[in-house]
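Hey team,

Sharing the Regulatory protein MarR run so nobody has to redo it. Sequence (155 residues) first:
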Amino acid sequence: MDAPPRWLVGEEKAAWDNFIRMQEKLIGRLSRHVQSESGMSASDYVVLAGLTERGGGRMRLLDLAKLVEWEKSRMSHQVTRMTKRGLLTREDCPDDGRGAFIVATPAGYEAIEEAAGLHVEHVRRLFIDALTPSQLGELARISERVLAHMEEQAD
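Structure output:
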């Protein structure tokens, strides 16, 4: 017989509910601001930021999908849309005839550079400026702890 769920209570529930509300509201506002000011969708931003910041502007599709925690099909559809708009290109992988590299184009770099400046100003205004340096340090430590714990858990 399965054990009953360990329901969240008291501070557990408050911490979780407030974290989720904060995250959803923050991501929603950031997405709307960047979209309205740069024309770049949140999905475009996530792909280009991951590709240019951590991938050197060039990554395999599966690696990019893993980086942003998306399914392969979602990434493939997003890349197709962005390729049609000239933000990305696909290059054949010489080591694997079935694989492909996703590459940021000059237009993609220009778009992410414009959007990143807008994004960081809103991150600072909505998030960073709300916390003291001590609170930011504590949040960083808590986030690192949760991320490390998640890495220890089976997917």
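The mean pLDDT is 93.

Ping me if you want the raw files.
A.
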